[in-house]
Protein 1
Amino acid sequence: MVPTDDIAGDGDPAVLRAAVIVPTYNEIDNLEPLVTRLLELDGLGVIVVDDNSPDGTGALADRLAARDPRVQVIHRPGKLGLGTAYCAGFARAIAMGVPFIVTMDADFSHDPCYLPALLGAASKHDLVIGSRYVPGGKARDCVAWRVALSRGANAFARLMLGLRAHDCTAGFRCYRLEVLRRIDPSTVRSEGYSYLIEMLFRVQRAGFRVGEVPIEFVNRRRGASKISRSEIVRALGTVWRLWWQQVAGCPTQPERSQVEALYPDPSLQRGGGHRRGDPARRRPAG
Ligand SMILES: Nc1nc2c(ncn2[C@@H]2O[C@H](COP(=O)(O)OP(=O)(O)OP(=O)(O)O)[C@@H](O)[C@H]2O)c(=O)[nH]1
Ligand SMILES: [Mg+2]
């Protein structure tokens, strides 16, 4: 395990090393304990993306944000999908300029205790996945059909798309800022859970280094799953679409000029490639 020092900021809430994006839909019982755990870690900010949860999760997020300036909330008018929720969170994190951007579920399936390992590994990798399927990783308390579904989806995505990661559907990830600047998450077509596969596909195709850190994934204890049968079918469709893109040789990346226009970065304009080790000394916007 990488030591916690790897994510330590200098104690100033305005100097963040990483933003943790937490998409929420009806996570009233999970959000406060999760945010409390996250804020115990130095140098982390939290971006909650709530889709007008009927159970009041959005209002709870606002109260947490009022208590601590490291917490921000993005409210959306209704359930618009996990993928687009990540996308909204990424746009905010890119605007903040934090060097590392983490995504994780609100339901404690992704234990914050792994964040130091994830962020530590991100010093050598451009995308780090908290993985169930590398040695040392596991899925606890998960029903057999969900494990089989997840295993099958991973095998299918790896085979069809040549993905090298073992846990391609994991939502526990740490991206380096320059990866998101280059990939431009807003151009990803998937809106739901398959957004994760499409992001990984693009990251690998763009030549970034992907690493995996073993985690023990724990089935949610509180609240209900939002994964539906139609999401599963859509994910299959996404894999086929990406496979076709690959076979037909379609570009998967936005034009470079488009990246520059959306996220102006002086080092890209100089044609000097991607900046490494972005300074973390930027204040979060808003
Ligand atoms: N904002 C937003 N969040 C979502 C949406 N769908 C799911 N989420 C959140 O995304 C995270 C993952 O969703 P889960 O329902 O836990 O899906 P899962 O982890 O694949 O399924 P389980 O193993 O059954 O928990 C949770 O924090 C959800 O609250 C959505 O449409 N919008
Ligand atoms: Mg979950």
Protein 2
Amino acid sequence: MGGPEVEGRSILMSPFPGSAGPHLFTGRTYTLTDEGGDPSEYYRLVRKTADACLRLVPGAGRLLRAVREASTWKGRLPWSMGRGRDMKKVLVAVDSALGSYLTGVEEHLRTLSPAHLFDTTLRTTRRQHLLYMMEIELNNRLARAAFLEAPYRMALIAHCLKDFREDCRAVNGDIEMLCSRCDGGCLVRLASELLERFGVEPYISASMDHRGLFQGLMARHPGLGVLGIACIPELVMGLRLCEELGLPAVGVPLDANRCSRWMGQCLETTVSLTELDRLLGGTGDWN
Ligand code: SF4
């Protein structure tokens, strides 16, 4: 067992309980792991903060709608939202609990190239990042039971968990890429095996047309449920798309956003298999 020798090379098993993977990797705009590479404190705080926010805006569905609405406003929250006063308290609570997990959003936005100014993912603001963290937690609370009961469940794992590997042997599958389990310590393999243990078909997400993908799958599998593993902004967009299509969907964010889109080159990242296991109905002991 050991850490990585060179960033961007193979992922080895971690000695840390939260994530399988190496020590801390800093993301472009957020990093959920502590200095030991463990994201469990983030998950403890996001749950605690969601509970606190629910005391301000009772009802997970109502709070989720308010959080989404607030995340679309880049300036001051309009009082016409009706919940303006409570949402300001929500924002303060979320910022004070989770703000330290943001890593250079302002610097990233300041240095965004003109070619990316219209990219809504890359333009995600500090407030949006924080509200998206809350949105994922609330969404999972609301959609988890329906997802677990869905007759056919599939997962899309972000391609950036694997595509820095020159020797990755993933192959084209019926709808998306399939991991061929060539590397015992690869996070895509570990996540895929965990997902299969809970009856969820794992795919590596490569296509950009998720709407077309889901619509095709819905025609083949009327009881479709979706699980996503992606960076925070991409995961939120995927969860919103699933809700629009009437699909129960849950997700686990990558521990840090380090794909080529954010970093200019694809660098290694991790995901919490403990959280994935819990979301799937396990105890969090994914080994
Ligand atoms: S085939 Fe699977 S286990 Fe092998 S490197 Fe690619 S994603 Fe990892």
Protein 3
Amino acid sequence: MTSRQPLATLAACTAVGLGALTVAPAAAHTLLHDTQSTRTASAGYAETHRAQPASHSTADGRESSRETAPEARLGDAAGKQPDSGPQPETTAPQETPTRPPGELSEKAPTASGVAPGKAYAAAAEDYAYPAAEVSTWLREGSTAAGYPDEKIVFLTFDDGPTAQTPKNLTVLRDHGVHATFFQVGKQIDDSTAPIVQEIIAQGSAVAIHSHSHDYTRLYPGRRASAERIGRDYDRALAAVRRVLGEDYASTAYRYPGGHMSWKNITAADAALAQRGATWIDWSTVNGDAEPASRRPHDVAGQLDRLAQRRDAEKNPNVEVVLMHDAKNKQLTTQALPAIIEHYQDAGYRFGIIG
Ligand SMILES: [Zn+2]
């Protein structure tokens, strides 16, 4: 299976694509290009993307208290973002797992279709790219080595697996495209293992988005703890491998809150690099995790937010789209067909990061 677009389609659609990505000046403050605006936008993102309820965000940061905290439950990282308050799912009773999150029964399946040493099935190799390469393209733009001469979009979903994930997978399958799912390790257990396996079977990629998704633990005082991030990564990797097998490996890591949001992060980057992983942020968002005051509330609003990027001149061909498959992100699933068709119409092929 391939997502390559015919060359004629690419040529015909290039102008459309660039036009669609023209930046709206009013949105410049939310964009992520230069250092100053990155800090501004990212601080807001981290604040609103906080996975843990404020009542648990005490400053002690002790691992032991975190391990037993009531928020460490299945689906929590995805479902309790304060910016999602108006949505009814945030107040619905949480499902109670039969065992601690991240732990699987002995009979949990370990065989999968994942290619040895990869984060995706062998059939997906044709459209898979290492995280280090994609990250460089975002940072350096068209002057980067190996920068593609065709348009490539990487749809990414953070905060799964949840019950919302299969719904997004169905939309992707119906459109014949693929995405990268950044998984929260503690949400992987017997009940969600089939979802993780379906991501691979569908031709998409499974990447890591921490085990705990706990800002206080990973970034005490908003400063990245390389030691904690490394250990947290190891736990998440183990959780994925219990589902996909020991052959699973990913080059891609997405920091909860984004790399751009935290101080003192160089040592954490190195800790990830020692584990073969590279952080990857994004070039645009559908806005599904923004504060309620500016979060899009309909499909058209999400499409409009996608177009609000200002580095299109520097980086005309590579788009990494941040979205979420937390279980209260139904609007994202509703918008996904239009988002996919937007990029198809603009001549993009669909890549995965693995
Ligand atoms: Zn997240």
Protein 4
Amino acid sequence: MLSFNSSAKHFLLDGAPIELSPEELTEMNSMRWWHQIPFAPGVKSNGFSDGVRHISDYLLDEVDFKGKSVADIGCWDGFQLFFAEAHGARKVVGIDDLSQRHSGDNAREFAKRKLQSEVEFLDSNVYHLSPATHGAYDMVMMFGVIYHLVYPMLGIEKACSIARNEILFATHYIESKPEVPPFCILYENGELEGDMSNWSGPNLAWLEAALAIQGFEIVKAHRYFNDRITIHAKRVENQHTQNSRLNTVRDTTMIEEFRSRMEASS
Ligand SMILES: C[S@@+](CC[C@H](N)C(=O)[O-])C[C@H]1O[C@@H](n2cnc3c(N)ncnc32)[C@H](O)[C@@H]1O
């Protein structure tokens, strides 16, 4: 038995380690993880994505989680939710479409158990989210999902629909000069990193416009790596919400047809 002394809940606050028996170590190492989650010094899950490194990339160390209900769309093993919970979120809900992952292990339940987390996991495609079915949250996070979407505008609309006040997301994006209008590239044949699950490359103006249409205003945009950006946006009253332009758009038959087609195919 690896023996350590402190409450699991605070592992990301003060580095307090978690006890893992030899059997649990074997179990952890046999699972396919997405996130590297540190459980104790020198003991972390063997995921592809270094959760700790992404804390600053995703602005997790800047936003205030205290007392908030937080959902994370595309949460995979839940690292960012465990972080939010350790930093004072009162409720954390992970939403993921398990069919979109390239490995199926339920490692997140192992992490939840060991971290004594109260996170709740829901299985849903972002396109199917609604506040009536999935709840509404003070803050919605969505990291590494938008560029996987064929319909990024709809993904943003659905994510915003369950966000009461704030949205925090990270995505691949295309850098462009400020005078360039909003655009979003469609990667038809895996042109982005040779990955056929990558579909969309918006510029910042597109992200700003897409959020504005949903009634959100960017409060911080943080570029990391060459082509990644994290956006923190807050709900505001704006010209779109005041003019009810969205309702006009939603009334058109064309949009409804498009939605049914997309929902049937996902
Ligand atoms: C690149 S991983 C990012 C994982 C995690 N958010 C992070 O940043 O470390 C993409 C995640 O998005 C999820 N995903 C992709 N398309 C989705 C969709 N249409 N609806 C819901 N989740 C989706 C995948 O299942 C996966 O968990």
